[in-house]
Write a structure and sequence with these properties.
Layout lengths: L13 E3 L11 E8 L4 H12 L5 E5 L4 E6 L2 E5 L2 H4 L7 E5 L2 H10 L3 E9 L2 E7 L5 E7 L7
Parallel strand pairs: 2-5, 6-9
Antiparallel strand pairs: 1-3, 2-6, 3-4, 4-5, 7-8, 8-9
């Protein structure tokens, strides 16, 4: 994936305007949009044109067979049906300042952890079901070892 190419490739690639979410004053919510293989570039352009903003993150996630981009409040996820299937039951994604702190607050208030805190290409995250049944992925961004 290059700056002009958002399709998935075997080698992991990451581009972010901001690689550290630790200074976020409040969580950034993303609506998830799933798209088939080879369509992320066109979908990204659509959202850029409609929202009047450029993507601010794009990366491949080879271990999961995915490529992702964010444009405004949208998290665009490209992958084959079998690769995106595990992610379809999640209602949304929140980019947070500190995943561990959010995990502690959620579990103290009765949330069910569906996927424990683990490393993701952008930092770390977990998935929890809130007491009302809403399923949210919580993710914090941190710089990669390469500084990306």
């Amino acid at each position: 994936m290059t700056d002009n190419d958002t399709t998935a490739h075997p080698a992991p690639v990451m581009r972010r305007r901001s690689n550290d979410s630790s200074s976020l004053a409040s969580p950034r919510a993303f609506v998830r949009v799933f798209t088939g293989p080879g369509t992320l570039g066109g979908l990204t352009r659509f959202y850029e044109e409609v929202l009047g903003v450029e993507r601010d993150m794009w990366f491949s996630y080879p271990e999961k067979g995915l490529a992702l981009a964010t444009v405004g409040g949208f998290l665009l996820v490209e992958g084959a049906d079998h690769d995106v299937a595990p992610f379809l039951d999640v209602d949304g994604t929140l980019l947070v300042d500190d995943a561990s702190a959010h995990l502690a607050r959620l579990t103290a208030r009765g949330a069910e952890v569906l996927e424990p805190l683990h490393q993701v290409p952008t930092g770390s995250g977990f998935t929890a079901r809130h007491p009302d049944g809403t399923v949210i992925e919580y993710v914090e961004h941190r710089p990669t070892p390469e500084g990306l």
